Amino acid sequence: MLLLAVAVVFVGLGWHSAATSGQSPDEGLRDAEASVATTSAPATSSATASAGDARLCVINAGSISGLASEVTDELKAKGFTTADPANYNGGSFTENTILYRDSSQKAEAQKVATALGSDASVEQRPTSFTMCRDGIAVVVVTR
């Protein structure tokens, strides 16, 4: 019973503090919006990147430790937007493969293959592959 009374007192104090703070919720919202800094990404001059680039997810499906990180760094250096590298344990990939979501990403996926200079296959993503749903998945097995 005593704990209930203490809880009621603290709730009352909280309401009183909020009601008498002297600042309306609208003012607080404006202050919060004003304090948020906006940033913009620098323009890239890379010949392989374009304004419509999709996000790339480099996924290591092989046994070479750190391969996805290496390829991610290489793609970033060439002007592509990449997510953090990841690992895939599904075991169904035997070659480097670039998976695009739909026809709107196919040309970009081909640019990625060209930028890597590899013989990676470029294929439409199977529905069973659920990693990197909105981006282009760069599945690497070998260097």
From TrEMBL:
Keywords from the UniProt entry: Signal
Q: Where is the composition biased (Low complexity)?
A: 34-50
The ranges of region (Disordered) come to 20-50
Say yes or no: keyword Signal present: yes
Q: Where is the signal peptide?
A: 1-18
- Extract the Pfam families matched here: LytR_C (PF13399)
Q: Where is the LytR/CpsA/Psr regulator C-terminal domain?
A: 55-140
Which protein are we looking at?
LytR/CpsA/Psr regulator C-terminal domain-containing protein
Organism equals Gordonia otitidis (strain DSM 44809 / CCUG 52243 / JCM 12355 / NBRC 100426 / IFM 10032)
